[in-house]
């Protein structure tokens, strides 16, 4: 009842209006609409609430939850769809899960309001650094399953985005709130006139304060826009070492069969579709690398071991088709699969189901149809690929029980075959009914080429691409980044665009191209400046192919790869010391 009375009051109306400003303006600024001008006013809702409730800590926490829920409702409404479709929960369970996740995973809003209010109360005057360091602290130290930062929205501006090479999204968040707080202060004409009259004042102390404040904001604007422009020009002029012809196949594979479809028939149709799509596109000319997405062929593996046979996930026809694709076209094939092994404590000589560990894995098959390096997903998605507690698996039959990988090596790829196949009749999916993997390799044995490593790429599965701190743990200098993902669980929503936009920051931080391969859209190629090539996105919930020449940018360890979030930590530390001595002096 208290909540109803509050929402029907004038104070409640103003509060909801402020939540809406932040939520809607952030959504308009972000993908797929990408109207970045709105982002500069998005923090206004937070500023108004903090000012009206300064020092009232309990109220600020409740208002923070209000921002969290409305922000989730506007920008992350697809979470509800995922909960019902992927999780299989009924609406009466999905709604509280949605609200609970909105609060827990957007805790940055109440934390921001508390930190901002505390500092503003201690300083007692207009000081934009307060707004800046508060959002940096809130984004750094609050949990987020789907990390979304205000800096990602600022990065929709192509020039400002280049600063991510030094600061990642965090620094752009700090920049946004610094500038936005200035704009918020000047929203009233009387404040603007006060500044103008201060400039004309004959009082030297007032003039000094005005000049200092003005020079401060000018310096920050010049620093970010100037450095962004410099980096944009610098990296635009870089000549690539080479180009790699890459084909992405988007097969729109089924996720599950709860609607009564025949699984065997659907999988046969899927394999036929992948075979035909690849063959049709490569009649135009060979490629260096074919990339299939996460869950492009679900439920199975090509890794033939005692454990995978025991788990009934090895399927010889899957391996045969991957070998046909690589041998028929003389190309590397990178595809996603399940994989399995035994836990270290398993007893020798017998396999028990409880001793089997499953992995979300991607593997490369060389141009000779031979299985080479694989990558097991390290950063697993909570509630999607694992549950934090064992008893929770009973709540959702769709949630996987995967083990995290431990290997952070790059994936080598090899020189493709330069000549067409010598076979008069090429193999296709139908031939896997009678021909196993060994038979396929024997059939194309005359086309076998010497294995020569051509380069390596950095493999990322699904939302690993949006965790900047994780991606920089990979060692070595990749030619480019390959991100395979499956966004089909989110339906025809904005999630796929948001997922990509958060991930494309890695292209700037690493100065490497990104190949994004999705099961059902949107697949796209992004260059080392964070630009989507030809703005060519595949449609959602469709089958499609997309092919581009990926540039290999000369290896250079960027500042962010070397030092991570060092600048953000230094900024928080320096500003924290300034506030400490300021508060101590005034006390």
Automatic annotation (TrEMBL):
<feature type="transmembrane region" description="Helical">
    <location>
        <begin position="60"/>
        <end position="81"/>
    </location>
</feature>
<dbReference type="GO" id="GO:0005886">
    <property type="term" value="C:plasma membrane"/>
</dbReference>
<dbReference type="InterPro" id="IPR004563">
    <property type="entry name" value="Apolipo_AcylTrfase"/>
</dbReference>
<protein>
    <recommendedName>
        <fullName>Apolipoprotein N-acyltransferase</fullName>
        <ecNumber>2.3.1.269</ecNumber>
    </recommendedName>
</protein>
<keyword id="KW-1003">Cell membrane</keyword>
<feature type="transmembrane region" description="Helical">
    <location>
        <begin position="166"/>
        <end position="186"/>
    </location>
</feature>
<dbReference type="InterPro" id="IPR036526">
    <property type="entry name" value="C-N_Hydrolase_sf"/>
</dbReference>
<feature type="transmembrane region" description="Helical">
    <location>
        <begin position="126"/>
        <end position="146"/>
    </location>
</feature>
<dbReference type="InterPro" id="IPR045378">
    <property type="entry name" value="LNT_N"/>
</dbReference>
<feature type="domain" description="CN hydrolase">
    <location>
        <begin position="244"/>
        <end position="554"/>
    </location>
</feature>
<keyword id="KW-0812">Transmembrane</keyword>
<dbReference type="GO" id="GO:0016410">
    <property type="term" value="F:N-acyltransferase activity"/>
</dbReference>
<dbReference type="InterPro" id="IPR003010">
    <property type="entry name" value="C-N_Hydrolase"/>
</dbReference>
<keyword id="KW-0808">Transferase</keyword>
<feature type="transmembrane region" description="Helical">
    <location>
        <begin position="562"/>
        <end position="583"/>
    </location>
</feature>
<keyword id="KW-1133">Transmembrane helix</keyword>
<feature type="transmembrane region" description="Helical">
    <location>
        <begin position="210"/>
        <end position="232"/>
    </location>
</feature>
<dbReference type="Pfam" id="PF00795">
    <property type="entry name" value="CN_hydrolase"/>
</dbReference>
<keyword id="KW-0012">Acyltransferase</keyword>
<comment type="pathway">
    <text>Protein modification; lipoprotein biosynthesis (N-acyl transfer).</text>
</comment>
<feature type="transmembrane region" description="Helical">
    <location>
        <begin position="93"/>
        <end position="119"/>
    </location>
</feature>
<feature type="transmembrane region" description="Helical">
    <location>
        <begin position="12"/>
        <end position="39"/>
    </location>
</feature>
<keyword id="KW-0472">Membrane</keyword>
<comment type="function">
    <text>Catalyzes the phospholipid dependent N-acylation of the N-terminal cysteine of apolipoprotein, the last step in lipoprotein maturation.</text>
</comment>
<comment type="similarity">
    <text>Belongs to the CN hydrolase family. Apolipoprotein N-acyltransferase subfamily.</text>
</comment>
<dbReference type="GO" id="GO:0042158">
    <property type="term" value="P:lipoprotein biosynthetic process"/>
</dbReference>
<dbReference type="Pfam" id="PF20154">
    <property type="entry name" value="LNT_N"/>
</dbReference>
